[in-house]
Amino acid sequence: MKLLKNPLAAILIVVGLLNSACQKNQEKVKTIEPVRVETVALANAQNQGSHLEYTGTIQANKVVQLSFLVSGNVTSVPVAEGQFVKKGQLIATVDETAYRSQYEVQMAQVRLAEENYKRIAEVFRKGSIAEIRMLEAKSQYDQARSAARATYQNIAHTKLYAPQSGYIGAKKIEAGSLAAPGAPAVQILDISRVSVAVPIPEAEINTYQKGDKAQVTVPALGNKQIEGTVDEVAVLAAAGTPNYTVKISLPNPSEELKPGMVCNVAFQNNSDGNATATAGQLIVPVEAVQVDVNGQNYVYVASADGKMALRKTIQTGTLYNNGIRVTKGLQGSENLITSGYHKLTDSTAIQIVR
């Protein structure tokens, strides 16, 4: 009754209700902006997955540890680390004075034993002495000569020579130090060829065999790429780890590859039976894989028309340097969403920007 007495107030209320209803209808028909995402074709990712990448370390083709066979004071080490030496070149010397004196004493005994033997032999020929005396003298002469020869070997061992050509990798003695028999003195490296030691997980070691090809990239040389061949496949795991070492042989004609350099190794799958285990692997970027509250892994892929995100529950396998293997849940022909996935839910509208 009060509203009828004030028609202006009634009109304003009606207009307000109409405006409110219009605004609600406008909100209902408001267009939802699609989420901008980036995708990658899994068919391409699968091809990349057949080249499994690892990190390895370059090693010398051959490492020779030199040591003295006798003890004594080191008198000279005429080589330096990094120096190239030829086979037969003098590496180090030990003071031979004591061994030389011992040899001279024994040579004097040899001469005395020789003279004694000659005299007794002459008397024996005249029949004035028993044969046993002559044999004893000869035995003493032979023993003296053998002892002298052994002592002379000690003199020869006071000089250390290079058994092969190569570079001095480490020098562990200096002039004035004391050499001990068997203690490492100098290390010689042969780097005319080198090898790359690659640790391989136990689940993958049977994938590779001698003769397989690998592409080696050396960051220290401006990402230079060199093709190598698997030369050794370990059958015993490295101490304290579940990894096995695979060695790849590389040519090194310019000797620019140095032991200790870190490199990236991509094995090329062959067509033989051992390689088929990885030839069909599906590798996806790790960052694209998410985990829900139930602990299940999932990814988002684009629908066939590219306008909608579809959630796919997956099962994962081995983790590689370039991604993680998907063992179940994807066909391999989908377009995987790799950017913007954190804004998505199943059936969210998307716009592919790349």
Please supply descriptive tags for the structure shown above.
354 residues, Helix Hairpins, 4 domains, six-stranded antiparallel barrel, conserved putative lor/sdh protein from methanococcus maripaludis s2 fold, alpha+beta, 6 helices, five-stranded antiparallel sheet
Task: List the SSEs and their pairings.
Layout (H helix, E strand, L loop, with lengths): L1 H4 L1 H22 L6 E7 H8 L3 E15 L4 E5 L7 E2 L4 E5 L2 H29 L5 H26 L2 E3 L4 E6 L6 E2 L4 E18 L11 E6 L5 E10 L9 E9 L10 E6 L8 H4 L3 E2 L5 E2 L5 E6 L6 E12 L2 E6 L6 E5 L10 E3 L2
Parallel strand pairs: 1-20
Antiparallel strand pairs: 1-19, 2-9, 2-13, 3-5, 3-8, 4-7, 5-6, 7-9, 9-12, 10-11, 10-13, 11-12, 14-18, 15-16, 16-17, 17-18
Structure description:
There is one protein chain. This protein has four domains: 35-50 and 281-352, conserved putative lor/sdh protein from methanococcus maripaludis s2 fold (Beta Barrel), CATH 2.40.420.20; 62-88 and 161-186; 97-156, Helix hairpin bin (Helix Hairpins, Orthogonal Bundle); 193-278, Elongation Factor Tu (Ef-tu), domain 3, CATH 2.40.30. The strands form four sheets. It has a six-stranded antiparallel β-barrel. Helix content is 26%, strand content 37%. Helix 4 packs antiparallel against helix 5. The two termini are 66 Å apart. The chain has helices spanning 2-5, 7-28, 42-49, 97-125, 131-156, 276-279, and strands at 35-41, 53-67, 72-76, 84-85, 90-94, 159-161, 166-171, 178-179, 184-201, 213-218, 224-233, 243-251, 262-267, 283-284, 290-291, 297-302, 309-320, 323-328, 335-339, 350-352. Strand 16 and strand 17 form a beta hairpin. It has six helices and 20 strands. It is α+β, with helices and mostly antiparallel strands and 354 residues long. The radius of gyration is 41 Å and the shape is rod-shaped. Residues 270-279 have low confidence and may be disordered.
